[in-house]
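Attaching the record inline, Q. Sequence:
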Amino acid sequence: MREPEISEIDECNQCQAEEHYEKTKKCTDCGCLLCVECGSSGGGKCDKCKDKQPKIADFGTFVLVSTDKTESDRQKWLNERRLGIGGSDVAAILGKSKFKTPLQVYMEKINEYDGDFAGNEPVEWGERLESIVRQKFSEILGKEIKSGIGAIAHNQNYFMRANIDGLVEDENAIVEIKTSSEYRAKSWLDQEGQLLDMPEDYLLQCLHNMHVFGSDRGYIGVLIGGNKFR
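Structure, as predicted:
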């Protein structure tokens, strides 16, 4: 159950600004009381706890905050997702997603809705095929695509999170890998099999992740119906 919001405190442990006393939050780590502004800007953590959070590396434009999404640390990865807005959240927040509503995103963030799709067959096969599709994309580009980047956060707007599927380092370009059923092929291809404009939800995800990573370019590679790569 979500802990009820506290309505009044004597002092925000971070900014001590009296004008922010109306509504408050607790730091998700130490439990100290924060005004809403400080609690939101820190991704739910006070500055002291945010600085303590494990950061694998700081690359200037972004901070690597966790390891790759392996089964052993899946719960940690899910917890990280709740601390901010990720690329897959953006389309839903803007009302552009066919899979999730803005309310569901909100409920996920306050831990009252399970947004983990583990066990969902399309998600499972998407994850299984990701490395194969990435390898094909690497062959087409003629460049190495680095994988296993992990969960990252924008180093200034810490609530902005991203999980990217690959990186072309010499172009400072991120790579997003998608798999799509034949049923959704019309979202990608015209009747002659030519690529249409990018589906809006994936475009928004890519643009968000580019901003978090500080990228100059973003690639999206998709395997459609199991036998068409675009």
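Residues 16 and 49 are 17 Å apart (CA to CA). The longest helix spans residues 121-141.

More tomorrow.
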